[in-house]
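User
Class, as today's exercise, I want you to study this protein, comparing sequence with structure tokens, and judge whether sequence predicts the tokens.
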Amino acid sequence: MNKSVIAGFAVGTIVSALTVFAFQSGTFDGSAHAANSDTYRQLNLFGDVFERVRADYVEPTDDAKLIEAAINGMLTSLDPHSSYMNPKNFRDMQVQTRGEFGGLGIEVTMENGVVKVVTPIDDTPASRAGLRPNDYITHIDGKPILGLTLSDAVDKMRGPVNTSVTLTVVRKGVEEPFDVKLTRDIITIKSVKYHREGDIAYVRITSFNEQTGELLEDAIRALQKQIGAAKVKGYILDLRNNPGGLLDQAIVVSSDFISQGEIVSTRGRHSDDTQRYNARGGDLTNGKPVIVLINGGSASASEIVAGALQDHRRATILGTRSFGKGSVQTIIPLGSDGALRLTTARYYTPSGHSIQAKGIEPDIQVEQSGDQKKKKLLITGEAELPGHLAAEDGAKEVAGSDSFVPADKKDDKQLLYAIDLLNGVRKDAAFKATSTASAN
């Protein structure tokens, strides 16, 4: 009996707290009494269900986990990008955006209940141990992965530097699973990679973390030194399969190619939420031609950069339609209770277009291959995500596109097309061979 009273008090406290929050956020005002009553009844319903689960579920429950699941359910019902991060997940997110952590150095995904290696990162424990793309990891330290989430599996592979972990690997062409023992190390995610293609400067950005802007500027200067600034025929900025990241880094990257004018604007629920972000610094490429490569895996911050350079006519966009994620998520810390990732605005290209559920249409459409068997990595696009934020004003939504990029450069039609354009071997009316002054 006492236990029931204590439990009832706990539920009452939760409902009261939610009610107070509703008052503070303006839900309860005299002009909306009926709506207020409905809201209060729903809060009571939540309390009743919570109490019934705690009292009658077949096994004892964890109150904190129940509340966390309820919060996540509320947020994920809004759109695919809003979520609650508990304290541990919040710390992990902060580590990832800094681009440095203790781990093995593997990009992974989940497939059929096991972890699949997308690629080992160069010069990391994973690459030195010989792990390969398309390897499957079935056990970590002898314990099966089946039943774990991808996040749980990644947590088990990460850990303090100089500690070891054993992965059980299944590899196509090898009859039996085999174990690989690795020692964790400091993993630095270098989000910018570059090399010269003759007199063409090629730069690939894999994500937008805290180091991206600085690394890009280093890459541009290094390539200018290698080739000779005056001899550079042009720049290829490869944003294919870049899932995005930090908004401020997208602005920095755009500013390295645009001398002045707006990069992006964000508009929230209220008119006073509108913010505009302008180019800062100057064009480090001295007005040389720029080709930006995008595909169905180019999302969010990648689309901000592509959209800004396209609208300013500073670059030719080449490839296939981008993912179409035109929403902004704000991280709202909740003290010791983690953080809230909440969609708070849509973003707009300098010409005022929202790409939400539509994507960036390239100036030059180049498909990699008509052979579907070779398109091993497909992106459905924002428009096909369940519960996605609708396109603005009922505009027609468009699915994303293929995100396949061949491992061998000789098979990469998009890259070869860009190289031919900059070398003058190929002509295309859509190619901006000279820069156009940025709009104010």
